[in-house]
Design brief:
single chain; mainly alpha; globular
Length: about 160
């Protein structure tokens, strides 16, 4: 879900920079972040240009009703407000990806894994992603449990 600031800047950048210039700057920033490493990039179309050998491309999906329920709880919106916001953001994202990358945002070809958080808890999805990061890159990311044990042992 986009903040007011992000919507304002996104509109400004897309309108004033032009698609090619915007895409060039977007790629430069994301490639610099990726080169630095140990980053999580949410959205921005990174899955369309980062090399798959250097990224784990995760897509989280959920049925509309589950998404509405979460948004009602998180943002204290009515069911109808939440539905409208989700539909608007989905349309904006799909439009952005098509306009900038000429890609179908819903294609499974753009992800290494798709996790349905309507069926799998966020906590389980977290464990799956951490396990995949370890398997693909050998990254040993400590779990909350391991951090708690380490913190206790240090006392």
């Amino acid at each position: 879900v986009h903040s007011h600031w992000e919507r304002a800047w996104r509109g400004f950048l897309l309108d004033d920079l032009g698609d090619e210039k915007y895409l060039r700057h977007l790629k430069q920033v994301i490639m610099a972040l990726a080169h630095h490493g140990n980053v999580v990039i949410v959205g921005r179309g990174a899955q369309y240009f980062l090399p798959s050998h250097g990224a784990l491309r995760v897509r989280l999906v959920a049925p509309l009703e589950a998404r509405i329920k979460r948004l009602v709880e998180l943002e204290k919106l009515s069911v109808e407000q939440a539905r409208m916001k989700i539909e608007r953001v989905d349309a904006e994202r799909a439009s952005f990806v098509w306009k900038v990358f000429k890609k179908d945002i819903s294609s499974p070809k753009n992800s290494d894994i798709i996790i349905n958080t309507g069926e799998i808890s966020i906590e389980t999805a977290d464990k799956i992603v951490l396990s995949l990061l370890h398997e693909k890159f050998g990254i040993g990311i400590p779990t909350r449990h391991a951090l708690a044990k380490e913190s206790y042992a240090a006392k």
